[in-house]
Design a protein that fits this description.
mainly alpha; two-stranded antiparallel sheet; 13 helices; 4 strands; 3% strand
Length: 307
């Protein structure tokens, strides 16, 4: 009887090995249809020729990438120069996404720590409050944010009523408004992974550090942060990546001076530009930047595991 359990477990594992590919078939179909296929379509569209009325002509060319990086004049007969317009939009997007990530981390870490250190019966309530905004569509939340901060919105009305300001603050169509929209949209993406990491933290380590006369800052820097680092990194990625390609916040809360790469891509497919190859090329460049960030993180993580 003692040897029956291992034998049954071995037989079960043998059955799993034989049926592994078939069990994973739904996953591979899902990934192939909804992830790989769209990326391949965009990659193909990025090397096609623009059709005058929108769409593509099946003539392969790298003109879309050339248009993104180089300026050859209105008629294409001038010496090529670096096209700083689109590069500037990309840089603005990276800057906005990076700042949103930093702000979410500064607010999200204390929030996650507070929730994780509450009694077990109260944590679910706090997590419920954190996720409530996601019960509402992102478009509705962004429009509501614009309503709150507009010149005649509740925020300005309250500040005028209290006498803090004499004239309404012009918040809409500014970098501040875009940053506020990104921060509000993706803050829970930072809180939840850090909360999961802090919840598994052994608080006896902090007690041991205190017994050894370590102050709070030393304990945080040398003990807590290294332990919860995976949650922090996961939260930063979950905030940075969607913020980089966001277009609702820049479109509704920003203006021409706050144009981001997501808005540029959307304009090429839905706006008056109608340049599908250029939009696809910009999408592939954005995807390359995201993949580079993820690969750098994976490489750093691998080096950390080896050491």
């Amino acid at each position: 009887m003692a040897g029956a359990a291992p034998q049954g477990a071995s037989a079960g594992s043998d059955i799993y090995r034989g049926n592994g590919p078939r069990l994973l078939l739904p996953v591979w179909l899902w990934v192939g249809i909804f992830l790989v296929a769209p990326v391949l379509i965009m990659a193909v569209y990025s090397v096609l020729t623009k059709e005058f009325r929108g769409g593509v002509i099946w003539d392969f060319t790298l003109a879309a990438y050339d248009q993104f990086f180089l300026d050859r004049g209105l008629f294409g007969d001038e010496p090529p120069r670096i096209e700083w317009t689109y590069i500037g939009i990309f840089w603005r997007s990276i800057w906005q996404a990076g700042l949103a990530t930093v702000l979410c981390l500064l607010i999200g870490f204390p929030t996650a720590w507070f929730i994780a250190t509450r009694p077990a019966r109260v944590r679910s309530v706090w997590l419920f409050l954190i996720t409530i905004p996601y019960w509402v569509n992102l478009l509705i939340r962004t429009v509501s944010m614009k309503f709150l901060i507009r010149d005649t919105g509740p925020l300005n009305e309250f500040l005028l009523w209290t006498g803090i300001i004499d004239t309404p603050l012009a918040l809409v169509n500014t970098n501040f408004a875009v940053q506020l929209g990104l921060f509000y949209s993706y803050l829970p993406f930072m809180v939840l992974p850090i909360y999961a990491a802090v919840e598994r933290y052994d608080f006896s380590l902090s007690e041991a550090a205190a017994d050894l006369y370590a102050d709070s800052w030393t304990t945080l820097r040398l003990i807590i942060l290294p332990v919860v680092k995976p949650g922090i990194v996961a939260g930063c990625i979950l905030v940075f990546v969607p913020s980089l390609g966001a277009f609702l916040a820049p479109d509704l809360l920003g203006g021409a001076k706050t144009f981001m790469i997501g808005s540029l891509i959307e304009e090429q497919f839905k706006g008056a530009a109608g340049n599908w190859p250029f939009g696809a090329a910009a999408s592939m460049i954005l995807l390359s930047i995201v993949m580079a960030v993820l690969l750098l993180h994976a490489r750093a993580q691998t080096k950390g595991d080896r050491t």
